[in-house]
Amino acid sequence: MHVYIFFVISILSGVWGLRNMSVRMPVAVRAGDRLRIACDYDLENAALYSVKFYQGDTEFYRFVPKESPPSRVFPLEGIQVDLSRSNSTVVTLDKVQRDLTGYYKCKVSADAPYFHTAEQSAPVIVIEEPLLLPRLNVEKSKYSANERIRANCTSEAAFPAANLTWLINHIQLRENPPAIRVHNRLLIDKLRGLETAVSMLELEARPGYFVEGKLKLTCLATQYNLYKRNASLLLQEDTPQLAPVMGATAPHSHPESRASLLTTDCTALWLTVLTVTVLSR
Ligand SMILES: *[C@@H]1O[C@H](CO)[C@@H](O)[C@H](O)[C@H]1NC(C)=O
Ligand SMILES: *[C@@H]1O[C@H](CO)[C@@H](O)[C@H](O)[C@H]1NC(C)=O
Ligand SMILES: *[C@@H]1O[C@H](CO)[C@@H](O)[C@H](O)[C@H]1NC(C)=O
Ligand SMILES: *[C@@H]1O[C@H](CO)[C@@H](O)[C@H](O)[C@H]1NC(C)=O
Ligand SMILES: *[C@@H]1O[C@H](CO)[C@@H](O)[C@H](O)[C@H]1NC(C)=O
């Protein structure tokens, strides 16, 4: 399930002998995992002279068919080439670490008579998962109508910082409605090179947010498609108990009608509940 960055060289179109060159690798990889960098090219019947792989501008692997053995590794700190998984189109690095984040380049040269050369590069990020699971804090757990709910979510010590998103009753807040404020902060530990993400959420406890008296608040921490963890809490609606005026039907027995009342105030809500109760009799 890797998302591949795909670069197709355009300046070479029309040049005979080396076409459709691209470098393929995941956008991000976990520290300690294996990184596979593929270099695709079409020599169009020309012979391959060499393929070279670089981290930044430093070469670490070369494949030259005419040499014996054809594969050669150049020592570069932190890079462990797995020769058994490397050839003329692929180089595999074992146990990559965070400082190998950066650009990787592949340079292909065709053999005589044209010696065409082309190169392409692409970035990769070596991530460190957050040291701790996301933490969710609220000031209190019970809210009366229109009180402010304030919550903080923290995802500690990662590289790069996890993205934090909020869900209310399993629904993701994408563009924040006017009554909801989200403030994100980044704390950077320069010594360890790790980042802590903090997100502060503030919203009004509207009755419509509570389903059967409860609001489920979730904070989701993600890093690309590699890390996904969440923390959640159930907040309670602090409402005076309504006397059973309309028979046995409880006021909280219509979650569907209540869920759609996100903008009504408390009075309107109770009126609606009563109306629904009357209609359902
Ligand atoms: C190379 O590119 C051409 C045109 O851009 C395309 O028709 C062809 O299928 C490509 N070949 C490969 C092997 O991707
Ligand atoms: C290089 O290795 C990759 C993966 O191990 C494989 O898919 C590919 O066919 C190999 N290429 C050549 C030219 O042997
Ligand atoms: C959230 O963080 C802010 C700033 O650190 C702090 O002032 C506030 O008390 C925190 N709120 C909660 C609910 O933890
Ligand atoms: C966070 O989200 C942004 C926007 O969707 C994305 O560009 C970025 O790569 C994400 N970062 C991480 C660490 O997942
Ligand atoms: C939160 O985590 C729990 C347990 O891992 C999982 O069942 C649930 O689907 C997650 N929720 C979201 C919104 O990702």
UniProtKB/TrEMBL annotation:
Pfam families: C2-set_2 (PF08205). Keywords: Disulfide bond, Signal. InterPro entries: CD80_C2-set (IPR013162), Ig-like_dom_sf (IPR036179), Ig-like_fold (IPR013783). Residues 1-17 form the signal peptide. Residues 144-224 form the CD80-like immunoglobulin C2-set domain. It comes from Laodelphax striatellus. Coiled coil: none annotated. It comes from the Eukaryota. This is CD80-like immunoglobulin C2-set domain-containing protein.
